[in-house]
């Protein structure tokens, strides 16, 4: 709680100024706490905005992906319909072919039966023809005997001999005709036998075709059923994808409205944070002004100590320029050379070796000035600390986290507190800030600095950091 200044009592003017200085210091601490809280909220909202952008992009990708999925499903649906039509047509064609094959098989079966009848007729004809040939042979024998008997009868048997000769001739022709018929029957029998074999093969093939047609028909029927199922499921997916797409669009509208609201909130928080930082700067100026006018606070002794040490450094630097220990160009350079294999990065300049030799004797005793003092180190206008306290100027290890805390010399600190300390030209600057101590612990620190002026040129400043009450 910031104490209220009482300007109506009879306290002397200096006491009132001391009270005002104390109020300014308390106000500064409160404002720093407020600025730190706003800074944390601002950082959080920035992170939320980044997440918002990612979610926005993901929602966009989801919507685009849903459009692609719906298009693909439409294609699948159309393809399954076409496939189903083709399969149904194939089934119908195969069923028609099977029907024709069945008719063909039945016809071949009937043909086989007819061939059997023909074979039986051929066999019967051959039997009858054989009988005819046998009768012709017997007639021929009888005719020959008749001719012999007619010859014995002489003139009386001549007429009978003519008849016998005619019968003999007829029997020979009949025998010859019977033989020709036998040959034809034999040839016809061979053809019928061959036809039977071919018809039998055709019947077997027709049965195979029927069996394969049945299997193909069964398979295609199964395929048709599966295609119908796929088509049905694709239609359901299409409908669901359409519903999802509508939901995503609705979500996108709602999310965009929420995002705009969050962006407005984040912008407002950022503006408030900026104003809080301005108030912190104004409180620092108020502290400077009240202390400069003679106001005394709990920080006065720290301010006096850092001003005294900064004056010693200024005098030591001027003496070094005067005796040629270092040149002005080397002392005021801002050219930094990275030191290889250092993490965090360390750098060297033309004045680093010089400050390593002259600053410890001025900086180190400050650590014994008060138990609350954490560090005391000179910093140039670019945020470079060439020579830090010995306890945090350890050799680099392979652990960057350890190096961060224990190897703080020869590093550039571009944070706001450091840069303001290095560039402040007022007699002193008192800053209050939150320092991350690790493991989630944060402590309130004060950083008092005084400028280092060398022959009228601003080199940087001397910083003293101590724990706030």
**Which strand order do you get reading across the main beta sheet?**
3-8-7-6
Structural class call reads alpha+beta
Question: Which consecutive residue ranges, at least 5 long each, have pLDDT under 50?
Answer: 1-10
Shape: rod-shaped
The average pLDDT is 78
Report how far the terminal alpha carbons are from each other. 13 Å
Overall helicity: over 70%
Helix segment count? 8
Summarize the helix and strand pattern as letters: HHHHEEHHEEHEHEEE
CATH architecture group name of the largest domain: Orthogonal Bundle
CATH uppermost class of the largest domain: Mainly Alpha
Largest sheet: 4 strands, antiparallel
Summary, kept brief:
This protein is α+β, with helices and mostly antiparallel strands. The protein has helices at 13-153, 158-292, 300-322, 328-331, 352-358, 360-363, 400-406, 416-423; strands spanning 337-338, 347-348, 373-380, 384-385, 411-412, 429-438, 441-454, 457-467.
What would your notes on this structure say?
The protein has a 4-stranded antiparallel sheet with strand order 3-8-7-6. It has helices at residues 13-153, 158-292, 300-322, 328-331, 352-358, 360-363, 400-406, 416-423; strands spanning 337-338, 347-348, 373-380, 384-385, 411-412, 429-438, 441-454, 457-467. The chain is an alpha+beta fold and 469 residues long. The two termini are 13 Å apart.
């Amino acid at each position: 709680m910031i104490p209220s200044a009482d300007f109506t009592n009879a306290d002397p003017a200096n006491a009132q100024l001391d009270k005002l200085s104390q109020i300014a210091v308390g106000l500064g601490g409160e404002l720093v706490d407020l600025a730190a809280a706003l800074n944390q909220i601002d950082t959080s909202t920035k992170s939320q905005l980044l997440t918002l952008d990612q979610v926005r992009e993901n929602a966009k990708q989801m919507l685009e992906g849903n459009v692609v999925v719906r298009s693909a499903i439409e294609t699948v649906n159309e393809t399954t319909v076409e496939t189903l039509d083709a399969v149904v047509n194939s089934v119908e064609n195969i069923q028609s072919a099977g029907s024709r094959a069945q008719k063909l098989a039945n016809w071949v079966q009937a043909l086989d039966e007819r061939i059997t009848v023909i074979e039986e007729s051929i066999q019967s004809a051959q039997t009858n023809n054989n009988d005819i040939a046998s009768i012709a042979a017997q007639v021929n024998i009888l005719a020959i005997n008749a001719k012999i008997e007619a010859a014995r009868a002489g003139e009386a048997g001549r007429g009978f001999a003519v008849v016998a000769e005619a019968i003999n001739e007829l029997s020979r022709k009949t025998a010859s005709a019977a033989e020709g018929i036998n040959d034809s029957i034999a040839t016809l029998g061979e053809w019928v036998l061959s036809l039977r074999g071919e018809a039998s093969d055709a019947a077997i093939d027709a049965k195979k075709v029927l069996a394969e047609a049945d299997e193909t028909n069964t398979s295609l029927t199964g395929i048709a059923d599966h295609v119908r199922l796929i088509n049905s499921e694709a239609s359901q997916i299409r409908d669901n994808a359409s519903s999802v797409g509508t939901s995503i669009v609705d979500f996108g509208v709602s999310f965009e409205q929420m995002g705009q609201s969050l962006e407005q909130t984040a912008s407002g928080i950022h503006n408030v944070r900026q104003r809080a930082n301005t108030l912190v700067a104004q409180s620092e100026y108020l502290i400077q002004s009240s202390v400069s006018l003679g106001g005394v606070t709990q920080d006065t002794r720290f301010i006096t100590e850092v001003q005294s040490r900064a004056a010693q450094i200024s005098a030591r630097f001027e003496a070094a320029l005067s005796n040629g220990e270092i040149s002005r160009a080397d002392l005021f350079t801002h050219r930094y050379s990275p030191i290889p294999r250092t993490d965090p990065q360390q750098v060297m300049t033309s004045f680093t070796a010089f400050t390593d030799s002259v600053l410890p004797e001025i900086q180190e005793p400050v650590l014994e000035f008060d138990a609350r003092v954490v560090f005391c180190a000179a910093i140039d206008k670019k945020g470079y600390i060439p020579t830090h306290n010995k306890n945090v100027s350890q050799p680099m290890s392979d652990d960057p986290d350890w190096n961060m805390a224990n190897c703080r010399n020869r590093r550039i600190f571009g944070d706001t507190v450091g840069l303001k300390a290095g560039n402040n030209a007022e007699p002193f600057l008192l800053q209050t800030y939150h320092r991350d101590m690790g493991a989630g612990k944060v402590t309130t620190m004060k950083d008092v600095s005084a400028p280092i002026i060398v022959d009228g040129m601003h080199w940087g400043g001397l910083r003293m950091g101590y724990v706030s009450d």
